[in-house]
Amino acid sequence: MPRLPSLVVGVCSATCLIAPAAASAGIFGTAPIPISVGPHGEAANGPSGHPTISGDDRKARYVAFDSAASNLVANDVNGRADVFVWGRPHGRAGLRLSRPARPSGRLFRASVSSAEVQGNGDSMNPSLDGSMRSRPHCVAFQSTSTNLARGDADAVEDVFVRNFARGTTRLISRGIGAPAVNPSIDGNCGSVAFEAGGMVFVARVHGGRPHLLGSGSSPSYASDGSAIVWQQGGGIMLRAGGHTIRVADSGSDPHVSDRTAGEWGVVFQTGARLTGNDTNPGSDVYMRVIRRGHVRATDLISASRRGAHSLGGTNIAGGITAFGALRGIVTFANDQGGQDTLYYRNNHTGNIDDLAHASAAASIFDVATSARANFVAFSSTFPGFRFDHNGGQQDVFFKALRDGEAL
Asked: Alpha-carbon torsion 91, 97, 98, 101, what sign?
């Protein structure tokens, strides 16, 4: 098995929780900084959201997000929401994150055609590739644009893949009449899952018509391409290892780890009480471990520590790392008492640590996790984060935890 960072096998930091964190508690890792900013760190003139992080081991070279702002890159004159990709700064600056994200980082627009023509519709919901063995080079997204690729003759939403290494854009949802949305790309830029008309489809990036996976919505690929999870009939489905199983009868926002020692970890949020230590009337975050087509274990993630009672409030699933089922990390946001806190849970030690605080309810969301949880990204309307000059407008934020690698 690949070497794991000390973050997931070592002792937790001084702020590890045995109870919910106070508003003044320290955070683990760097302070979050906004990355949806202009060329010199100036505030975006429109809201930004839906971040996704490339799955390339400890590197996490890129973060993609969508934005209605027109001042993030030059010559953005289409008046539409676009998809952007931010490249993490090189050297120690990309780990300390002690300066504004730009001009030290690189930002480019991905929702363009192979001829670099900007889209004539709205583009959003990006998904980046990259895996433990593959360097990222593609981003999938949905768009109402009709000028991004051949074969798209109407303004119904379609799914596209931009290979930003080669400068090409492909239509993926070819032949699908219903709006195609919520794409999720595997780590090798080989296949994309998406939903359309209440059904989940999978399509190869380099040709072939999409094939039906089943009814449902919100698909999510494992970065190694070994599994897909999605919502169906109020519950969670998983296709992995030749089996399709119902992971939970109630749940939403599912994510799945890579295959590790024959197992997958599936994380999701639900209002159902699946374990005896769930005393919370609100939603909680759970992980179920799947092996050979069966649920082997159920674990309440949104607790103050492993085996303890739930934190309370509303808990929103973030993401799960590549080795999440055994020794990895799960991230989640907790909304309680007028404060939002971003947490991670270490599945090896059972420790929970706080990563960000916002003194405003429902102000941390769209949480994304890198392959090793060395980096996290999220959307927020909280105006109190460092270098944020937007005064409560929604932006995308990024932070480093520990043991990430410099570019």
From this structure: positive
Cis amide linkage into residue 219, ω under 30° from 0: no
Q: Is the pTM of this model over 0.90?
A: yes
Environment class of 237 (CB within 10 Å of its CB; exposed 0-12, middle 13-18, buried 19+)? buried
Residue-by-residue DSSP string for 133-180: SS---EEEEEE--SSSSTT--SSS-EEEEEETTTTEEEE-STT--SPE
CA angle 191, 195, 199 (to 5 degrees): 115
Mean pLDDT, consecutive 10-residue stretches, the chain (407 aa), reads 28 35 70 97 97 96 98 97 97 94 96 97 98 96 97 92 97 96 98 98 94 97 98 97 95 97 97 96 96 94 89 95 90 94 92 93 94 96 95 96 87
N residues, the chain: 407
Query: How many angstroms separate the CA atoms of 169 and 140, rounded?
Result: 9
- DSSP-assigned letters across all residues of 291-311: ETTEEEEEEE-SBSSTTSPB-
